[in-house]
Amino acid sequence: MNFYAPAVILTTGTFMSGKIWVGRTSLPAGRAGESASHGLTENLQRLGFETDRLKTGTPARVDCRTVDFSVLEPQRGDEEVSWFSFDPDFHIVREQMCCYLTRTTKNTHQLIKNNLHETPTYGGWVEAKGPRYCPSIEDKVTSYCLNYAFVG
């Protein structure tokens, strides 16, 4: 298959040679159990292109059976739903799930500080650049330690 164009922009996302961490175990994967894309990174590098990885720092999953939702602030979805495709045939109506606003405490911060060595970045198992505008909870606790009410 050949493509001809004056310029090509390849937006690879997190699937290209994607990895997830479950505790201390690293697995090749995309998001939510989907497969990673393998081979493209190596082919691009072989052709002389530079590639790099960013750490997305997806928060840990929480078992909803262990959460007291009555003390959390609900954050409902948009009433008018929009989608990424301009083709209306690709729009699938899905049930929106509510998000909930939480805040950290001094106890939360201490728990995180006591367990930094258990995280991939602070434990030294992975070297990655984190997101600039959305730091992980570990980065917030270590960098902005005077604020005890981070929104989560």
From TrEMBL:
<dbReference type="GO" id="GO:0002098">
    <property type="term" value="P:tRNA wobble uridine modification"/>
</dbReference>
<dbReference type="InterPro" id="IPR036188">
    <property type="entry name" value="FAD/NAD-bd_sf"/>
</dbReference>
<dbReference type="InterPro" id="IPR040131">
    <property type="entry name" value="MnmG_N"/>
</dbReference>
<feature type="domain" description="MnmG N-terminal">
    <location>
        <begin position="3"/>
        <end position="143"/>
    </location>
</feature>
<protein>
    <recommendedName>
        <fullName>MnmG N-terminal domain-containing protein</fullName>
    </recommendedName>
</protein>
<keyword id="KW-0285">Flavoprotein</keyword>
<dbReference type="GO" id="GO:0050660">
    <property type="term" value="F:flavin adenine dinucleotide binding"/>
</dbReference>
<dbReference type="InterPro" id="IPR002218">
    <property type="entry name" value="MnmG-rel"/>
</dbReference>
<dbReference type="Pfam" id="PF01134">
    <property type="entry name" value="GIDA"/>
</dbReference>
<keyword id="KW-0274">FAD</keyword>
<dbReference type="GO" id="GO:0030488">
    <property type="term" value="P:tRNA methylation"/>
</dbReference>
